[in-house]
Amino acid sequence: MIDLYSAPTPNGHKVSIALEELALPYTLHTLDLHQNQQKEDWFLAINPNGRIPAIVDRAEDNFAVFESGAILVYLAEKTGQLMPLDAKGRSQVMQWLMFQMGGIGPMMGQANVFYRYFPEKIQPAIDRYQGESRRLFRVLDGRLRDHEFLAGDYSIADIANWAWVRTHKWSGVSIEELPHLKRWIDAIRARPAVEKGLQMPPSPRDLTSASDEEAARFSAAARTMLETGQSRNN
């Protein structure tokens, strides 16, 4: 049995989707990020960085794993699924996983901060992060032109990138004129395990189609959380 400590974010859903795809039994523990539960001592003993997600594998002497990409690799290697066993195949998956970890996630995350959460609209910053996100989307679209999935068969690389890219509207980034990316987004969204993973836990707002009023309320709550977290870290 695995304990999953998570919240309704792209990084959190990466792991819950993988657990559902792998049909691994797990118990979900939802952390209230607005209350900074991820900074409490009991959780810092699991993840010293104080971020979600994290897992504890009870079957492996309560082995703890943090960082969403590292968790995906651990689960894939534990089960022998969602990642090839040969060196070249594994490398392809790892390349596209690192693409998400080092590019898609950070750029979309910063786009969210400046486009949605920051109290002042700093247009050069918004343009910078939305533009870089769009560039990365074009890289994905080019890869998907001749490949059904990013690294051969469906893998943790697809799960990691999809969990972020699906929220492109929230980041203010269009996927118009990226037909291969659209096809891939829709194909993965149709998977039953993906649908179930998105409900573990469900987001209080659908970031793919939130109304202006809903978006404003969600952004205000997120802004308060960011400000509270910064004050507690100073």
From TrEMBL:
MF term (GO), any: transferase activity
Alphabetized UniProt keyword annotations: Transferase
One Pfam family it belongs to: GST_C
Gene3D superfamilies named among the record's database cross-references: 1.20.1050.10, Glutaredoxin
Segments forming domain GST C-terminal: 86-210
Record domain GST N-terminal: where: 1-83
Keyword Transferase found: yes
Residue span of region Disordered: 195-218
Keyword Cell wall biogenesis/degradation found: no
Family, similarity comment: Belongs to the GST superfamily.
Protein name per the record: Glutathione S-transferase
